Amino acid sequence: MYQKTAIVTGGSRGIGLAIAEKLGRDGCSVVIFATRPEADCREQLERLKQSGICCHYVQGTLDSGEDRKRLIEETVERFGRIDVLVNNAGVAPLVRADLLTMTEESYDRVMGINAKGTMFLTQLAANQMLRQEVVGKKRGTIVNVGSCSAQVSSVNRGEYCISKSALSMITTLFADRLAGEGILVHEVRPGVIRTDMTSKVQEKYDALIEAGAFPIKRWGTPEDVADAVSAFCSDSFLYTTGNYIDVDGGFHIKRL
């Protein structure tokens, strides 16, 4: 049976690690791209390997053009091709600042990783997919892990909201450009997911959940997001591209 190769950015912890594990269990060889040294991720990588998942780790930063290129080159050198790209890596502002005091430095950092880095890694991966022989029912799959913040205003982290809105347009643009080539592009929009990023504001979200802000009254898990990504990477959505799915407990529903 043909084994697909999937790249998962930000795959060393949280949502990214759950996605890497799910795709590995689905039968993919998995390449994890993350900023931490490989030695710091030894426990996670060993857990994947003990589960029978073939994985490779590449250290780098998404906002580095050289690192993005090296990621693609190492993946192709090791596994021969790229079938799936999951753009999961992203950062929040180091300091939550009001929109009227947000700094250019913070904006540039968040946009450089979340939007620019994702844009140009996708470009590299798509061009690699186009050079490959088509195996199976599609040439490739790209899934962008966005956020409900693409549409929900948070005035104390405006740069993050803008970057996730930009990611949605990146999804639309590549879906449009690549549909005729057999590469399908999707977006998954998590809501409040229990991760390191949300741990700093746990009390706030605990209160919102308790107050009924989310129709499904619980925190989301990284596995909830991973399941949605897995579905898009399967052959279940062959007549769908450029769409998104909310994994947010129904938070997007407007209610009176």
Write the topology of this structure.
Layout: E1 5-9, H1 14-25, E2 29-34, H2 42-50, E3 55-59, H3 65-79, E4 84-87, H4 104-130, E5 140-145, H5 158-178, E6 183-190, H6 196-199, H7 202-211, H8 222-233, E7 244-247
Parallel strand pairs: 1-2, 1-4, 2-3, 4-5, 5-6, 6-7
Helix pairs in contact: 1-8, 3-4, 4-5
Oligomer: single chain
Record field, number of beta strands: 7
The biggest sheet, with number of strands, parallel, antiparallel or mixed sense and barrel status, is:
7 strands, parallel
* C-alpha Rg (nearest Å): 18 Å
Fraction of residues in H or I helices: 40-55%
Distance between the termini: 51 Å
Question: How does this structure look, described?
Answer:
The protein is α/β, with parallel strands linked by helices. It contains 8 helices and 7 strands, in the order βαβαβαβαβαβαααβ. The chain has helices spanning 14-25, 42-50, 65-79, 104-130, 158-178, 196-199, 202-211, 222-233; strands at residues 5-9, 29-34, 55-59, 84-87, 140-145, 183-190, 244-247. A 7-stranded parallel sheet has the order 3-2-1-4-5-6-7, sandwiched between helices. Strand 5 (140-145), helix 5 (158-178) and strand 6 (183-190) form a beta-alpha-beta unit. Helix 4 runs parallel beside helix 5. The longest helix has 27 residues, at 104-130. The radius of gyration is 18 Å and the shape is globular. The chain starts with a strand and ends in a 9-residue tail after the last strand.
